[in-house]
Design goal:
Length: 327
């Protein structure tokens, strides 16, 4: 009797910060995994050796063709143009990747009838300065950047494909994710940037007053949410994935500076006009439906991230691991 083959999943952006760690979890769970990534921001070394790697841009016609030929059961779509400032500077280029290329993948996915198409949405980007916090899924979004517009646009298309073509579409709107493997270059979050600069004793710039808030979510909690989504047929539509708690940039700076022993005063830079001042997500709907909840306290996640970055930089700076309460 032939052994039943493990299910096949395609992970776009699977060499990146979040995608690569989802790949690790999938392989541990017994999936056959194909990673599609152009390595514009991801790194080949992030890809699990048990995954099959395709160096390919999602805008390449071969990407959709691969889906049509290989018929994966699940597609996890993490590949994107993630730089908000770049989207403001060149909205057409942003749309080519984040809208047009994504639509081609969704069309191919609907043709081969994948069992689930999971889109990496963005909760923080969809908040505006008028949004009640923590933001619920049903609240009206007023995107402030082309990047955010593209994320919301794909959700609209996802609803169309689900209603008209039977595509089981899910958008997981992540809060501000941080953790190991996050690239401190380009459009990285402040956690990765601050840690890298502090360990090098380099100057740090805080844009705006530093009182702007974000909902910081550790990457392992994101991976756990994705795995819940993949395994459950009833998870469809748009969900928030976050802690619901706000933390200011200044607080992040102080926590990390104390951990690392960084003594320099931050410089002040201009505020980002394309980003909301406050952001946090209400994940209650996803939590109630799946039983998921974030497990990592902020201090614990920051500590683990510092140690990871330190090991890669091979710095000898002494780290004070628990200067704060973890509750």
């Amino acid at each position: 009797m032939a052994t039943k083959q493990a299910p096949l999943v395609l992970v776009t952006g699977g060499a990146g910060f979040i995608g690569s760690q989802v790949v690790d979890a999938l392989i541990s769970d017994g999936w056959r995994v194909v990673v599609m990534d152009n390595l514009s921001s991801g790194k080949r070394r992030n890809v699990h050796p048990g995954a099959h790697f395709l160096k390919m841009d999602i805008g390449n016609p071969k990407a959709a063709k691969w889906i049509l030929q290989n018929k994966p059961e699940v597609i996890l779509h993490f590949a994107a143009q993630i730089n908000v400032r770049r989207s403001v500077k060149d909205p057409i280029k942003d749309a080519e990747t984040n809208i047009h290329a994504t639509l081609k993948l969704m069309e191919a996915a609907s043709v081969v009838k994948v069992k689930k198409f999971v889109f990496a949405g963005s909760g923080g980007a969809l908040c505006s300065n008028e949004t009640p916090i923590p933001m619920k899924e049903a609240q009206v979004c007023d995107p402030m950047s082309p990047y955010a517009i593209s994320k919301r646009t794909i959700e609209h298309y996802g609803e169309f494909y689900r209603a008209q073509k039977g595509l089981p579409f899910v958008s997981l709107r992540f809060a501000n994710v941080y953790g190991p493997r996050q690239n401190a270059k380009g459009e990285a979050g402040v956690v990765a940037i601050f840690i890298t600069q502090m360990l090098a004793n380099a100057p740090i710039t805080i844009n705006g007053t530093g009182t702007q808030t974000r909902d910081y979510l550790y990457v392992s909690d994101v991976v756990d949410a994705v795995m819940h989504t993949v395994k459950r047929k009833d998870v469809l539509g748009v969900y928030h994935i976050g802690t619901g708690r706000q933390t200011t940039v200044n607080e992040i700076y102080k926590k990390l500076a104390t951990m690392i022993g960084y003594k320099r005063k931050p410089k002040k830079g201009p505020a980002d006009q394309a980003a909301p001042h406050r952001s946090a997500l209400d994940a209650g709907r996803f939590m109630k439906q799946t039983g998921w909840s974030p497990r990592y306290k902020l201090t614990e996640g920051l500590k683990t991230t510092v140690l990871s970055v330190q090991s890669h930089l091979n710095t000898k700076r002494k780290i004070c691991l628990f200067p704060f309460r973890t509750s």
